Amino acid sequence: MVDSISKEMIIFSLLLILALQLKGSEIGGPIIPTKVTVEITNRLNMKILGLRCQEKHRDMGVHILNVGETYSFRFYPNYLFPVTLYFCHFKYSGGDHHFDIYVQRRDDYCFHNRCSWEIVENGPCKIKPRSRECFNWNVASVPANK
Questions:
Q1: 114-120 and 95-103 as β-strands: parallel, antiparallel, unpaired?
Q2: 3-state SS class at 105
Q3: Are 131 and 141 in contact (CB under 8 A)?
Q4: Which residues contact residue 62 at a Cβ distance below 8 angstroms, ignoring those fewer than 6 apart?
């Protein structure tokens, strides 16, 4: 009796996981977890950009970008609970700012798992296939134009 119930629970659990994975793939989520790449490009007007990105348990260190240069990092987001957060500190002549560069609920389905950002004086701009969405500094998830 117990073995029969255990087998039924295992089969039910596997079917539930499969159904959730298939539902996730319908809305753009991966069936097999894949890494996300975050790209940050310096588009400041003739200014060198210093940046340091990190999450709760991982610090990517300090990086210096000349105008037009790009820094990128990769990671596996938490697919079970969408709580992955990476934040960056940006410094340049005349600016010292923070921004949440990857918020899983906001950025979960970036274009082909690549979240591209351009840093300008007014704030970071997320690059999309046919548009650009700019945000204010020190604001995690509210676009500047809304």
A1: unpaired
A2: helix
A3: no
A4: 50, 51, 52
Neighbours of 19 (CB within 10 A): 10
Tokens 């918020």, located at residue: 103
Q: Kindly report the CA angle at 121 between 117 and 126, in degrees rounded to 5?
A: 20
The answer to whether the beta carbons of residues 120 and 43 sit under 8 Å apart is yes
- For residue 118, the one-letter residue type is E
- State how far the Cα of 75 lies from the Cα of 93, in Å rounded to an integer: 30
**Per-residue burial over 74-104, b = 16 or more CB atoms within 10 Å of its CB, e = otherwise:** eeebebeeeebbbbbebebeeeebebbbbbb
- The pTM is what? 0.73
Summarize pLDDT for 67-120 with one digit per residue, the tens: 999 999 999 998 888 899 999 999 999 999 999 999 998 987 788 889 999 999
